[in-house]
Specification:
Layout (H helix, E strand, L loop, with lengths): L1 H32 L16 E2 L6 E2 L7 H7 L5 E2 L5 E2 L16 E3 L2 E3 L24 E4 L22 H11 L3 E4 L6 E2 L1 E4 L6 E6 L8 E3 L7 E4 L6 E5 L2 E3 L8 E4 L3 E5 L2 E3 L6 E4 L2 E5 L2 E3 L4 E6 L2 E5 L2 E3 L4 E5 L4 E5 L2 E3 L12 E2 L6 E3 L2 E3 L3 E2 L5 E2 L4 E2 L2 E3 L2 E2 L8 E2 L5 E3 L8 E4 L4 H6 L33
Length: 462
């Protein structure tokens, strides 16, 4: 009996002995999560990351005063942001020297650049990095007031014309040209293998392509590129292109040149938007509209066409003349053709049975041989996979009677073929319909998919 009482007393004493230790642990854990602190290491809440020296309590940071404290306590978020929490960046300069593929501060995080205005050099590269300032030549017609040829081609003293910049690129071994936005169109450019450049990128320096227009005069393409016997690869980004009157295109490509388009607008040209013969063409995230013939005309060419919005071209959206091969994915081809045209108004694959995938081909009009205006000949000779159309004659397409676009009527320049969000019609036709895709982004550069699967057409709406 005595030994049992001793056991109870021992347990009771042990419990009392451990009580201060458990209380200490409790207090220590509480202080880490509460407002009391000794250093920033004790302030674990994002909403109160700073230890106030006077009160020894955690508080929100103050912009302009607490950057050092943020850096000491949270090295990956060394700046005080506008909401009182420590963030990765406040300006683009905060991202300089970290990850070159994330040079831009967006929503207080370092990310890839998305447009020219994200970069000091006014040129955002395809990989999301900013081109180094010293590697770029600049063209600036100063709203039509630039004169002379004695310019350095720097961001402060740009060349007046694209032709002058090409000559300087050839002489200096450079490959990047940035075109400063202007209220006055830039003159057309013809580029051939004789110019001595094998690779060249020309990019608009504004926040949108409409700010930087290259325009051909009567009988003149806005951009003409011809490869010849040597390699010639031309990349065009963030530009607005318009061919002159007559049988001219916004862009003409021939003789084994390689052409890459990203974020360009091609419109109101005298003939085709893009005409390519014996070329390699990569076109992504671009708008092609209101050209007097076909949006894209390809003959004997290799192609990759993705995330394109093509509308209101007089004869056809896309037309193939034979001998071409490649991929067409996530296109929105709308309202091409006219009541007087008898050509295939949507996509004319000719006799090649070319594959069209995950695309919208809708409301493209043509006059049949009987004179009837019809929607039932929008595609010719194409193999279709996940193509939404209101062409009832296309047995392999997915027939739908309606799609909600942001704006599908009125002047072609105001049409917007982004899908309306939270639309029952769009959920029925297009949203979350593509389980697997090698195309990782959409027309706006947003990641595909946003939902459980990717959306059909150029725009990933969710």
């Amino acid at each position: 009996m005595s030994s049992l009482s001793d056991l109870h007393r021992t347990r009771h004493g042990l419990a009392l002995a451990l009580l201060p230790f458990s209380w200490l642990l409790s207090c220590s854990a509480t202080s880490d999560q509460s407002s009391s602190c000794r250093t920033v290491a004790n302030c674990l809440l994002d909403s109160a990351p700073i230890c106030d020296a006077a009160t020894l309590t955690c508080r929100p940071c103050t912009m302009g005063a607490d950057d050092i404290a943020c850096k000491n306590g949270r090295p990956t978020t060394p700046r005080c942001g506008p909401q009182g929490s420590c963030v990765a960046c406040v300006t683009n300069s905060d991202c300089t020297g970290r990850d070159p593929l994330k040079p831009t501060c967006r929503a207080n995080a370092c990310t890839a650049c998305k447009s020219a205005v994200d970069c000091q050099s006014k040129l955002c590269s395809a990989d999301g990095s900013c081109a180094p300032l010293a590697e770029v030549l600049y063209v600036d017609n100063k709203n039509g007031t630039c004169t002379g040829i004695d310019h350095k081609g720097t961001i402060d003293d740009g060349f007046c014309t694209l032709r002058d910049a090409v000559l300087a690129a050839t002489a200096g071994g450079k490959t990047l040209i940035s075109v400063i936005p202007s209220t006055k169109s830039y003159a057309a450019l013809r580029l051939t293998s004789a110019d001595g450049v094998s690779s060249l990128t020309i990019a608009g320096g504004g926040s949108s392509p409409s700010e930087t227009r290259i325009e051909g005069q009567s009988g003149e393409h806005a951009i003409s590129v011809s490869g010849g016997g040597t390699k010639l690869a031309l990349t065009l980004r963030n530009l607005d292109l318009q061919g002159g009157t007559g049988k001219t295109s916004g862009i003409a490509c021939d003789t084994s040149a390689e052409l890459t388009l990203s974020g360009v607008r091609i419109h109101d040209s005298g003939s085709d938007g893009l005409s390519a013969s014996s070329c390699t063409v990569h076109a992504d995230a671009s708008q092609i509209f209101a050209n007097k013939s076909t949006g894209i005309s390809l003959t004997g060419s290799q192609y990759t066409l993705t995330n394109l919005m093509i509308w209101s071209n007089t004869v056809s959206g896309i037309s193939f003349g034979g001998g071409s091969s490649g991929t067409m994915r996530f296109l929105t081809v709308y309202g091409n053709g006219t009541q007087t045209s008898s050509g295939t108004p949507g996509i004319d694959c000719g006799a090649s049975s070319l594959l069209v995938e995950h695309s919208i081909v809708f409301d493209n009009l043509a006059r049949s041989s009987s004179g009837t205006i019809s929607l039932d000949q929008q595609l010719t000779g194409c193999m279709l996979s996940n193509v939404v159309t209101n062409d009832k004659s296309t047995s392999s397409g997915t027939y739908k009677s309606a799609i909600d676009f942001v704006n599908s009527v009125g002047d072609p320049s105001s049409i917007d073929l982004h899908l309306v969000r939270d639309s029952a019609k769009n959920r029925d036709c297009c949203v979350d319909k593509v389980a697997q895709t090698p195309v990782q982004t959409d027309f706006d550069g947003s990641i595909r998919p946003q939902g459980p699967a990717a959306d059909i057409g150029a725009h990933e709406v969710q």
